[in-house]
């Protein structure tokens, strides 16, 4: 009973929070189109609230950016709905309290090197086919084979708070260095002339996803790290997940 009351208070507080920026140029998606994505509401040790996103890689584990999970104190994750305002009425929604966050031990807040984090849930999310599912991570993949191919990126926005998705194209790190000369091999870049993709703090943790050509399953290859602002034609830098598989497994 105490947990239900606390959860209701959390949700009421969320409804009156300020709207967040969003995936610029994206299209709204329906419930179940991106079943692996989690909306994260995190309160810092200084009682400041931020919203960001992540992906469910195990029933009780979310992958996100260090910027999203940094200075975690309290928080919760929402699964199963596109419009966050539908949480209280949806039969598919699940709200889970966050237990803890692990930031990469070598995360650099200035260069954003090692911008990756794991969010541990207080209990496993209630998986439901087509609405709440885990996402596959890359195994034995050379992302260079994806250069020139489209991938999708998704994140939430302001009222009415629908999850949005945009198509972006993977570009080589060599081309990316024209915009970001310090881009690392542990990062991957993508851009589009028709969208800016993720470009604000509310997009922290946003995934870029492709389809595994062998299995046909959706596979996440990157986590939004930084960009040069919100403008169409932006190049965006993502944390390259394949570079952190060992770290994810160890933690």
TrEMBL record:
GO molecular function, one term: serine-type endopeptidase activity
Signal peptide start and end residues: 1-19
Superkingdom field: Eukaryota
GO BP, one annotated term: proteolysis
Stretches assigned to the Peptidase S1 domain: 23-251
Keyword Metal-binding: no
Classification via SMART domains: Tryp_SPc
UniProt entry keywords in alphabetical sequence: Signal
Gene3D superfamilies according to UniProt: Trypsin-like serine proteases
Database matches in InterPro entries: CLIP_Serine_Protease, Peptidase_S1_PA, Peptidase_S1_PA_chymotrypsin, Trypsin_dom
CDD domains: Tryp_SPc (cd00190)
Family as reported in the entry's similarity comment: Belongs to the peptidase S1 family. CLIP subfamily.
Name recorded for this polypeptide: CSON011684 protein
Gene: CSON011684
